């Protein structure tokens, strides 16, 4: 066997090299914003940025799993809205808080499982299956509420968004917890290992005796459940569950994932990269707001950043070979 | 018919990185003749024809068309020179009509960009009738039988004024009646003065349709002969005649108890009534031509293809193997022909690939014991001398031989007792080959049984304790190592 030192160094660069470059991008961006507007680098503003990032960041965790399997999930935003309104109804009907939260997560899990089954058992391309679910879930949410938002919840429920744990906003704590678990799952569990294997070479995974259908379905179910979690936090923050919530969240989540170095071809990617990607998007929005840049121009800047990030990533990768 | 050659290929040489595929090959084609090209798998037939049709560039040598030297630059250039090729896999667009396919890429136009549909169908009907084929040019290609699709390919080549037509195994997918029709068409083409290069493994066809025959062996021309006056056995001798020059370090292990028995196995994939047994410590070679059903047999045993009838016994007990998981749990390991697309997950590390089929062994409640995994992977890397800078190196960066060893370790790690090797040494260099043979010896010495599918005759003869020959989904011959000769094996692989 090789000397441990060499093995470790190889390990360090192959596993963290990409994240380091994304992290450098985030820090560089922060420095520029700090120079332009000193208010950017205050504790209160940074916590604000983190809080803004939570919803997309949590949805993006599921998206990262899905994209590592070489799939895509376009339905996450709609599933978020659907899960949100069902949970809000449960709360208004007087169900105990923990039960209502379970309902929110359960609706997401169910939608994700349906996605997974359509893709594995129904053999639909992920793009088509989740495109269909995107429309179905949104339509159901609108039908369920007759297009009206469901508002006004108990202080207890709202504290999920407004509360603080050790002076850190609760949603940020939840986000960090989700990322820690996702990191562990991807790096240290069977599900994580199979996620990479399926995305890297589905045929080889099948020939290694892996139940590809089961694990793929689990990944989509997980993505759906995280949309449910995001729905809980968003509803608590807005004190309102809206059937039109989460519009275009799938695109933001894909952007965060891709900026974070996950390849749409599957087989590689990390949640740490995705977290940095989500933060880059939030920092950019926050900074542009502080600078008073119009929302029209913001869209142009964000789009350009996504393209630039992936171009740079691909360039680095090519040079790596 | 004249005797002046329309085509002459002289001293053709073609090298791929690390391999000489063709060396000093000569080939000559006359107007209006059917010239058969034969040789074993890998003898260089396809490579030679790909050079002629512009798909490959020759490394050295000369090509003359009508006495004038030409450099065939690409497939399109070959078409303009009058060389048409019909591959085994057709290049047709299924959702377009017969006529549209024939004129694809050079549609007659009224105005630039505006296709003249009527002209297409008229011209197509004209070409088809000159072939003596009754086929409606408006029909969609996907609705046609294979034989008719082939006629569309022929019509396409002729509409390009092909004077030389290359047909690669044209009868492989045809029924007997369709073959008769194809031969009638070929004779009509001959009368028009088209020169035909006909690649086939079927001896009967050769005698029925061929005028001359050129034999290739190991990338060299053995000779060109008139078909009349040739005998089947003489041709087979010419195809295989050579000595065991390569070194096979075969060590015979003691034959143990029966571990695998297959009885009357048939599948939808085309296997018919396959029966054989395999003993511990034995290497069972499976020979046959491409498409004989060898890989299908491996897939069926490994639970990938649905078995329609028959039984597989492991250690005497019947097993219902309907998924790779079941096969793996029954102690079967499958080293696929194509490592990169089937055996390995390239973006994953050596360690992750090595443990992929036995993750359950290294996990409790779904959580991986990475320390245990590290130790196991390290052990196999050391035992099999896998050259890698570390266990976390991505397998995509390893050499072919080392990748093969990683796949092998994957199955060792599952404690497999029956190893199926599908073309174990394809694409690995000579040194790694010897090492793989050495590993096979170690495996059999430790009581493992091996099924080795191989297209390399020398490998089959050099490594097998017993040889099964397959043709058209059936077993057509079985030989002990002592009985097996190249001639006998080829006879069984070819005979109707």
Write a concise synopsis of the structure shown.
The complex is a heterodimer of chains A (321) and B (496). By secondary structure, chain A is mainly alpha-helical.
Structure report:
The complex is a heterodimer of chains A (about 325) and B (about 500). With about 325 residues, chain A is an all-alpha fold. Helix content of chain A is about 75%, strand content about 0%. Mean pLDDT of chain A is about 90; it is low at about 1-10. Chain B folds into two domains: about 5-240, 3-Layer(aba) Sandwich (Rossmann fold); about 260-495, P-loop containing nucleotide triphosphate hydrolases (Rossmann fold), CATH 3.40.50. The radius of gyration of chain B is 26 Å and the shape is globular. The longest helix of chain B is centred in the middle third of the chain and has 16 residues, at about 175-190. With about 500 residues, chain B is of the alpha/beta class.
Keywords:
heterodimer; A: 321 residues; mainly alpha; two-stranded antiparallel sheet; globular; B: 496 residues; alpha/beta; Rossmann fold; six-stranded mixed β-sheet; 17 helices; 24 strands
CATH overall fold name of chain A: ABC transporter involved in vitamin B12 uptake, BtuC
Stretches with pLDDT under 50, minimum 5 residues of chain A:
1-11
Rg measurement of chain A, Å: 20 Å
Q: What oligomeric state is this?
A: heterodimer
Q: Order of strands side by side in the largest beta sheet of chain A?
A: 1-4
Number of strands of chain A: 4
Q: What would you call the shape of chain A?
A: globular
Envelope shape of chain B: globular
- What's the overall average pLDDT of chain B, rounded? 87
Binned strand content of chain A: under 5%
Largest sheet report of chain A: 2 strands, antiparallel
Largest interface chains and counts = A-B, 29 and 39 residues
Strand order of the largest sheet of chain B: 6-9-10-3-11-12
CATH architecture classification of the largest domain in chain B: 3-Layer(aba) Sandwich
Helix content of chain A: over 70%
What's the CATH topology name of the largest domain in chain B?
Rossmann fold
